[in-house]
Amino acid sequence: KVIYNEESTKSIGNDLRKVAVQPIVNYSNISKSYGDLQVLRNIDLDIAPGEKVALIGPSGSGKTTLARLLMTLEEPTSGTIEVDGEMLWHQKTNGKLVKANEKHLHKVRGNIGMVFQHFNLFPHMTILRNVMEAPRNVLGLSKEEAMERAVTMLKQVGLANKIDVYPAQLSGGQKQRVAIARALVMRPKVMIFDEPTSALDPELVGEVLEVIKAIAAEGEMAMLLITHEMDFARDVADRILFFDQGRIIEQGPPKRIFNNPESERLQTFLSRFN
Ligand code: ADP
């Protein structure tokens, strides 16, 4: 783990400082249990700014829980999580777990966008209003600014011609593209996609994956992608993490993971997709 450190890099010089990048997300020794069920076991994970990381692995292996911790939708049992150098969950040396205060959490959450399996659009609002809502209410942008941003995002996901319709009038794929626009409009530094296509009819999966690929290609945002679409993971991710039973069993660049899986568990898992 490379942490930018003003003091230590100063003496060594500028060259090192350029390569020493602070991770945008840092999980450190994270464990999570629900009662007796241990769902995550001592997870260490750094995500670099702009890095695209895909989580693959069997159902129930803890992938969603890892993402939900980052959104503070769940509380870790132990460990520390930082986003952009800001503490989200922090475990003190005495073992006590401390959560960031509300003001701080608000700021950290603003750096994270999340797209779920189910789109959760507001049914009584037009598409445009769905996307404008958070920039207006959370960022406090003027109506004009929020609208401009929202329209730009809706264009980006190919829905410029749907801004005045209501969610019920859209296909599942289109709804999911609205959900993506709604997250992107906040300009997060990290986007989490939790099985964004698994609730869709098969013929609608492609259009959503294409939109995500296009966003990934722009490069700036880090992404945490939970997916069962192996071809998609291979195309989009810089790094694949294979999860099983709450542990990262194996990780590496897509080519290595898919062409030369080392562990038997990963080999077995991948054989199901062939
Ligand atoms: P994945 O995303 O890999 O399918 P999850 O993180 O959703 O895995 O779930 C991991 C395990 O945690 C599963 O066994 C699931 O049933 C359990 N689990 C998830 N959320 C809860 C909860 N709120 N209460 C109890 N058990 C849970």
TrEMBL record:
Protein name: Amino acid ABC transporter ATP-binding protein, PAAT family
Keywords in alphabetical order: Amino-acid transport, ATP-binding, Cell membrane, Membrane, Nucleotide-binding, Transport
Signal peptide residues on this chain, from the entry's feature table: none
Upper classification of the organism: Bacteria, Bacillati, Bacillota, Clostridia, Eubacteriales
Membrane-protein topology: Peripheral membrane protein
SMART domains for this protein: AAA
InterPro entries assigned to the protein according to its UniProt record, in alphabetical order: AAA+_ATPase (IPR003593), ABC_ATPase_HisP-typ (IPR030679), ABC_transporter-like_ATP-bd (IPR003439), ABC_transporter-like_CS (IPR017871), Ectoine_EhuA (IPR014343), MetN_ABC_transporter-like (IPR050086), P-loop_NTPase (IPR027417)
Subcellular location, record wording: Cell membrane
Sequence similarity: Belongs to the ABC transporter superfamily.
One annotated Gene Ontology cellular component of this protein: plasma membrane
One GO MF term attached to the UniProt entry: ATP binding
Domain ABC transporter: residue ranges: 25-270
Pfam families: ABC_tran
